[in-house]
């Protein structure tokens, strides 16, 4: 088996497991709800049509090729190692908003198929946030362990995240991992319940401990998989997660997006809804890591 790396550490077998694929029970609403409750997540292999995913991937990478970050053929998603984004697109927020609003992407993230799934998992009619996190993650990129509660529970706790693989994302390319059973860690829920990070932007939301150290300290495992194009992983606000290191050696870029759905009956959080959402800090799409040129050294939230 190939090495799986998180924050520079190789994850040993004892602390590593596979996400349970719920695709075989996707038509059984009751079972999906039961698994969401039990596991804290639902992973669905090949949830989206492959051609639709490739259309979104092509459109997004074509935009990144226009600022010289992605090489031809764009579907391969190879980072060129350079960027002319800041020269050609000086308004970072406007550029990233336009890429994030790519129609073929929104057809997946905001389309009926995912919406229906979220209605089931949230137990009532849902609404999808307009603000979307699109993530091209080049070599060396990773995301620290965190949960989504401090960002997205401003008006209701009934919110779920969908992470969508916009191309194959094998474990070496830095896909999402979750911390097994962390949705049942009461101390984590207590730590983040009622916290709205926009009110205190300097507050730390991710853990300093490495994913492996975290798993060891809780006697648990990191669960992940070799994601295929169109796979989706849905999880709640208190499930701890992060992304493995992209350790590919041929400059391959992991492309994914994450988007939140909430119950429609609750107030809409103005930060993430509307024609020009302000985002967490008020800077709109400019605040996202994806808005930075791919040559910049950044770590994902
Ligand atoms: O894709 C990533 O690197 C992080 C995604 C994430 O944190 C999320 O979906 O909430």
Features:
301 residues; alpha+beta; Jelly Rolls; 13 strands; 18% strand; globular; binds 2-oxoglutaric acid
Q: Helix share of residues?
A: 25-40%
Question: What would CATH call the class?
Answer: Mainly Beta
Distance between the termini: 28 Å
Bound molecules: 2-oxoglutaric acid
Radius of gyration: 18 Å
Describe the structure concisely.
The chain is α+β, with helices and mostly antiparallel strands. It is 25% helix and 18% strand.
Question: Would you kindly provide a written description of the structure presented here, covering whatever features stand out?
Answer:
The chain has 301 residues and is α+β, with helices and mostly antiparallel strands. It has a single domain (5-287), classed as Sandwich (Jelly Rolls), CATH 2.60.120. 25% of the residues lie in helices and 18% in strands. The protein is built from nine helices and 13 strands. The protein has helices at residues 29-39, 50-65, 85-88, 92-100, 103-109, 112-122, 149-152, 186-192, 211-217, and strands spanning 5-6, 9-10, 16-18, 41-44, 126-128, 133-137, 143-146, 159-165, 176-179, 222-224, 232-236, 241-243, 254-263. Strands 4, 5, 6, 8, 11 and 13 form a six-stranded antiparallel sheet that branches. β1 (5-6) and β2 form a beta hairpin. α2 crosses α5. The longest helix has 16 residues, at 50-65. It is globular. 2-oxoglutaric acid (AKG) is lined by residues 135, 143, 148, 161, 163, 176, 241, 243, 256, 258, 300.
């Amino acid at each position: 088996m190939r090495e799986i790396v998180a924050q520079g550490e190789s994850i040993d077998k004892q602390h590593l497991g596979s996400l349970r694929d719920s695709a075989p029970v996707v038509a059984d609403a009751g079972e999906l709800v039961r698994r969401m409750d039990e596991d804290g997540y639902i992973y669905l292999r090949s949830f989206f049509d492959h051609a639709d995913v490739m259309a979104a991937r092509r459109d997004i990478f074509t935009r990144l090729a226009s600022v010289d970050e992605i090489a031809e053929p764009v579907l391969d998603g190879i980072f060129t190692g350079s960027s002319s984004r800041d020269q050609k697109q000086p308004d970072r927020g406007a550029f990233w908003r336009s890429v994030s609003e790519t129609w073929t992407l929104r057809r997946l993230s905001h389309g009926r198929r995912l919406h229906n799934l979220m209605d089931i998992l949230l137990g009532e009619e849902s609404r999808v946030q307009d603000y979307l996190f699109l993530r091209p993650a080049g070599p060396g990129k990773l995301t620290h362990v965190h949960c989504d509660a401090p960002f997205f529970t401003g008006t209701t706790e009934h919110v779920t995240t969908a992470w969508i693989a916009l191309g194959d994302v094998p474990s070496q390319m830095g896909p999402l991992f979750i911390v097994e059973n962390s949705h049942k860690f009461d101390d984590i829920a207590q730590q983040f319940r009622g916290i709205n990070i926009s009110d205190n932007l300097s507050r730390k939301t991710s853990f300093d401990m490495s994913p492996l150290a975290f798993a060891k300290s809780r006697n648990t495992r990191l669960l992940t998989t070799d994601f295929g194009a169109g796979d989706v992983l849905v999880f709640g606000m208190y499930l701890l997660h992060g992304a493995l290191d992209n350790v590919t050696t041929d400059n391959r870029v992991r492309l994914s997006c994450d988007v939140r759905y909430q119950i429609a009956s609750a107030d809409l959080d103005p930060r993430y809804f509307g024609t020009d959402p302000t985002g967490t800090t008020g800077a709109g799409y400019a605040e996202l890591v994806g808005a930075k040129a791919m040559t910049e050294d950044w770590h994902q939230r």
